[in-house]
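Notes from the 1:1 (GR / supervisor)

We went over the backlog. Supervisor wanted to see one worked example end to end before approving the batch request, so GR pasted a single chain during the call. The sequence is below; no edits were made to it. Supervisor asked that the structure be written out right there so they could see what the output format looks like.
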Amino acid sequence: MSDEDFAWQLESRLTSHGVYVTELDEMDDGYDLTYESIAADEGAVPHREIGRVVNVFLDLHGDDWRGARIEATVLDLEGERKGTWHVEASWLGELTDDEISEEEFSARVLDTI
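Structure output shown during the call:
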């Protein structure tokens, strides 16, 4: 899948969840994502949306994906920065290999907010 196709599919899948991708850059070691969230108006990074974003990355890459770093910046609909979070590539690999539980993975990601 080309970078353009990946970006389009990511944006399409997240839009239905109120997550509007404003920028996606591929870095040497992963992705730098900026998105607007309809739920960010509550003044914080919506935890549920983090899971949605990560799951879409996993779905689009397929079962054999070993992961990549994902750095995300969350904005409200006015474009005001609400926070950041990230996922380490190794965490995705550990999750895929069942070396850590989904709860442990989520806790690690939430600790980065």
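Supervisor's comment: The mean pLDDT is 93.
Batch request approved.
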